[in-house]
Amino acid sequence: CPHKFLLLYYPNTHFQKQIEALSRRIRVQFTSMKQWITYAASASLLLGILWSFLLGRSIVKPVETLSNMARGLAEGQYDQRIEIESQDAIGELAKSFNEMAWAVQGSQEELENLNLGLEKKVTQKTEAIQNLLDHTHQGFLSFDSVFRIQPQFSQECIQIFGKRIFPGAHAAELLFSHVKEREDFEIWMANAFQEK
Length: 196
Hints:
By secondary structure, the chain is mainly alpha-helical.
């Protein structure tokens, strides 16, 4: 024979009130906890955005400084250096830039000194050649490819031609006083030195 059960329910109002009160407290705590989690998540999000912004600035600002310094170095401002504020990759990059700037500045100063030395030697050699030309008692006069008088000529040429010689003037002006003679000379010289 199958067993039969009978369930009787007796409403206990005191017990029911305790369950309802407990349920209300759980709902209030759950709502409070939900608000706290929302506030914490919002604060974490804001702190994350602020931290990202500050971190971005700590990377972007040194890179911009490095870029500006490199541009200045390219424009000839060889005395620029970057102040190294960190020991990270940006600090290492700044240190490498400073080493490069020192090397470029040293090389530039060395080149300038070499140029000054070369200019001095060229001046000395030019003076020596001019001295030699002036003391040979011969007329030495040189022209470029379009018959313009070059700056180096002997003082004897002034006596030979009987007038002042102007570097850059056309040789025909020195040799001939009439325009027609100058034109004929220019045509003759052009034909004589024309490549065939």
